[in-house]
Amino acid sequence: MITQTPISTENISILDLEHPGANDAAYIARRNEIAKAAIRFRQTGKLPRVNYTDLEHKTWQQICQKLAPIHKEKACKIYLEGRKKLDISEDYIPEFTDLNAHLAELTGFRLLPIEGLVDSRNFLVNFTERTMLCTQYIRHHSKPEYTPEPDIIHEVIGHVPAFTDEAFVQFLERFGEVISLCTDEGVEKLDRIYWWTVEYGLIKEDGETKVFGAGLLGSIGEMTHAFEVPHHPFDPQVCMNTPFDYTHMQPQLFVIESLEDLQEKMEATFLDIINKYKRFK
Ligand SMILES: [Fe+2]
């Protein structure tokens, strides 16, 4: 998940009043600790181990155990196969160093820590290096099914399994490459397509509609809601002109025919976008 909010090391500890952890000093201190480790990483290049607490592992377990049967029924094959390949535990939160070691053998994709939200260009351009900037803190334990922002559950349960798929990773790589060539207007168009596919996309499989997007796969509420809103066939032109609101559940979703179909349609769109929104003309 991404927004236009730039990273600020000064506001790490300020949570919106609506945030479930806004009045929990211990939670805020813990987020600061994890955020500072991400900042230190950029200074030292040393990937931090978070050493999650029992309370944090418990929040993870609660969500994973509820999501498991829903995933079995509704998640797409790329996702389910990726979960198997990585053997992500439902009992404890994995460290990035361990996930990266496993991903290195499969696709060479890697997760790097970031302390908070980053602007779309800087987030998406990292795909050129088979890298995703990911938060490491976890949502507040009082509301395990809800998070107003991406957290470790969204990143690892939602996104990471698909990073085991070479074709998907190649798609992300190409996405990042095109981002690096575009003006801000082009980035905005691509950001919307990213949202409606990688974050909130559905996919056809053997005549059935399955869940493909990380924003859906990492959320109990979204997995159910996804089948209660209108579904439209994926069309890059429609998606790039459909704004999104990350503070609410999505009012409609788009269905891709297959990963190959997404890649094919997007290659034509990438060329079109580069042509229209190229930087440094
Ligand atoms: Fe995301």
Class, according to the CATH hierarchy? Mainly Alpha
Structural class by secondary-structure content: alpha/beta
Mean pLDDT: 93
In whole angstroms, the N-to-C terminal distance is 30 Å
Shape: globular
Properties at a glance:
globular, 4-stranded mixed sheet, two-stranded parallel ribbon, 6 strands, alpha/beta, binds fe (ii) ion
Task: Please give a structural write-up.
By secondary structure, the protein is α/β, with parallel strands linked by helices. It has one domain (25-277): Phenylalanine Hydroxylase (Orthogonal Bundle). It is 50% helix and 8% strand. The protein has twelve helices and six strands. It has helices at residues 25-44, 54-74, 77-86, 96-106, 120-124, 152-159, 166-181, 184-199, 214-217, 220-225, 236-240, 259-277; strands at residues 110-113, 131-134, 202-205, 208-211, 231-233, 253-256. The strands form two sheets. It has a four-stranded mixed β-sheet with strand order 4-3-6-5. A two-stranded parallel ribbon has the order 1-2. Helix 11 (236-240) links the parallel strand 5 and strand 6 (253-256). The chain is globular, with a radius of gyration of 18 Å. Residues 1-9 have low confidence and may be disordered. Bound molecules: fe (ii) ion.
